[in-house]
Amino acid sequence: MSNKENSVGIGLANFWVALGFMTVAVLLGVYQVAERSGFFPSLESPTLYFASVSTHGVLMGFVLTTFFIMGFGYYTATTSLKMPIPGKGFAWFGFWLAIAGTLTAAVPLLTGNASVLYTMYPPLAAHPAFYIGATMLVVGSWFWCIEMIWMMLRWKKAHPGEAVPLVHFGNTANAIMWLWTTIGVGSEALFQLIPWSLGLLETIDVGLARTLFSWTLHAIVYFWLFPAYILLYTIMPKVIGGKLFSDEMGRIAFVMLLVFSVPIGFHHLYMDPFQEAGWKFLHMFGTFMVALPTLFTGFTVIASMEIAGRLRGGKGLFGWISALPWKEPVMVASGAAMLLLTFGGFGGIINASYSLNVMVHNTQWVTGHFHLIFGGTTVILYFAAAYHMFPRMLGRKLHSRSMAVVQLWLWFIGMLVLTLPWHVMGLLGQPRRISSAPYDDPLVQQWNIHEAAMIVGGVILFISTVMLLWNLYKTHSGPAQELQMEYAEAIHPAPRVPQLLNGFAFWNVVIGIYLIASYGYPIAQFFLNTTYGATPWGV
Amino acid sequence: MHIDETEKKWVWITVIMTVIMVGVLTAYAVGSNIHPPSGFEPIDSTRLHLTEEFAEDNLGYKDNGDGTGTLTMVGARYGFYPSRVEVPVDTPIRIRVASADVLHGLHVPFTNYTTMVVPGYVSEVNTTFQKTGDFSVMCNEYCGLGHDHMWSRLKVVPKSGS
């Protein structure tokens, strides 16, 4: 290894842990589409199916993401700020704590003692080790958050008045957002789930638990998405030979994501009792506000692509598109992600709509929506980041660029073949989270063709995953090649930016006030009124 | 600070789009009184059978005598009770549902009769069924290993006397 950054070891460790657990989750996913379809009677088993769905969700939503984001953050922070990770032991401690948490939670998950799904809605009760392990994973990620903030503060001290590089401004925004985000699920775990599952509390207030979980449930998606957006703003334009269209707009988008992601979780509770309609309406307003930074990002990113296309000689209204380097993994992944984000975004606006949500609530439509945003937009850009960073971290040539490009296209196609039928089935009334469809209803016949399609999608995604792992694994022993991590310059470089776009102190106050306004009374009402808790139930 | 002119225009377009979408939803909420099922009404789920409203004998559809009706149901692993319900078409119905055990989701495809059923809280939906026919009442929130099998029937029949 020829690299100087002290983030290479911890970065690669995080990436491989993320990819390893992702592979397990993809395998479970293939089993789930086959089981759920009902085409293979010998596979039918609700016990296995729900243990699998729970594990798949936890590994994808919590484990793959947390480790990948930590690796991405460490490596981009050291390469953009040109400084080492301070207190490396501290960072490694967080990593090992997260590993210990994941393994602790894995035991009850894999033995069917935590088949409560990754949303862990009480009063279904899992083995306490599941809640404790998940909490350790989250606490481990806090060490990363502190590192990110620490690095930003140190850099600012050494460079007074200068604009923090956009990459690390984004990393820090995500770290701060994640700290705010985890207050919800953290409180639920520490004050409700863990003592209740250990028998220290007899009952749990399900309304309060769901309210606290909703605090985390939207912002966690932006925790996943942040590195993807950071890549689109700061890495993609450089790789494809262009410039970033607007550095300031990136900062505005990151600040808006930070402020609007957390206090809007009630769109997950539209169909719940125990919260009044007015609060749901207020959160709906915020939910639409958080669409804005994504729309701004779409413009800046596509404009940056156009700049690259024209610099490469593309002419005419659309000619620049074909002039883009479509043999470059980062380009393919960015194009695919933007398309799938558009589809997922359309669906998301339906879900976010106060009165329209009722038609799709908890149907397979929702599963389709978040797989587009998660797998289609976020994870495909994680792949791009891995293809870009592994060679730089290892000082070796990527094993095969063409295999990477094929792998990304397969992932794109697989995601579409998987999720479009899910949207249709949702509109045809299929509930999500079922292991079979025993309903005596002519409706069920209409689902079959779509069930077949989703299996094809699952298999394509599995093949794509194998190609990814092989390519990255072989890169470890490939020929040496020295490449630097370089970040995109803006057309109008911004060496200095307004204070509000270079720090987070003010925005933390704004978030605090916004959270008290949107969650204060909805949480307080459970303490101001007599409510009735629920005892633990097995699955 | 530099924001490009084209980008400024795009910001305006997105803001206007968002205002229109929120505006339409607000108009329906305020103008047509369309809200998701909401309301804070605690109930002891372990004692449903001792309440008057959710006692077994009182479940089902009742005509209120003023052209409206009330439907009372209980969700419990693994069924919605009563397991067969008949309700009249084109009649405003107030539906009240409670859970006797864990979390459930009540979902009747192609109608807007959907609500989460949460232990400890009463769910209320106000709706009017606009088509006659047989509908499935499916559970759409994972409630245990028998979740798939949790479903019952709803029959929307012509109004009596018409």
Report on the architecture of this protein.
The complex is a heterodimer of chains A (539) and B (162). Chain A is mainly α. Chain A has one domain: Cytochrome C Oxidase, Chain A, CATH 1.20.210. Helix content of chain A is 70%, strand content 0%. Chain A has helices at 8-37, 46-81, 88-110, 128-158, 166-197, 206-217, 219-234, 236-239, 247-261, 277-289, 291-311, 316-322, 329-352, 364-394, 401-427, 443-475, 505-528. Chain A is globular, with a radius of gyration of 23 Å. Chain A starts with 7 loop residues before the first helix and ends in an 11-residue tail after the last helix. The model of chain A has no long low-confidence stretch (mean pLDDT 96). By secondary structure, chain B is of the alpha+beta class. Chain B folds into 2 domains: 1-35; 45-157, Immunoglobulin-like, CATH 2.60.40. Chain B has 1 helix and 10 strands. In chain B, strands 1, 2, 3, 5 and 8 form a 5-stranded mixed β-sheet that branches. In chain B, a hairpin with a 2-residue loop joins β2 and β3 (79-81). Chain B is elongated and about 70 Å long. The interface between A and B is large, with 79 and 63 residues.
Please work out how many helical segments of chain A DSSP would assign. Answer: 17
Number of helices of chain B: 1
Number of domains of chain A: 1
Largest interface chains and counts: A-B, 79 and 63 residues
Strand portion of chain B: 25-35%
Structural class of chain A: mainly alpha
Second CATH tier, the architecture of chain A: Up-down Bundle
**What would CATH call the homologous superfamily of chain A?**
Cytochrome c oxidase-like, subunit I domain
- Return Rg of chain B in Å: 20 Å
CATH H level, superfamily name of the largest domain in chain B:
Cupredoxins -  blue copper proteins
Uncertain stretches of 5 or more adjacent residues of chain B: none
Largest sheet of chain A: none
Q: What is the string of helix and strand elements of chain A?
A: HHHHHHHHHHHHHHHHH
CATH architecture of the largest domain in chain B: Sandwich
Provide the residue-averaged pLDDT of chain A: 96
Number of strands of chain B: 10
Output the CATH topology of chain A: Cytochrome C Oxidase, Chain A
Extract low-pLDDT stretches of chain A. Answer: none
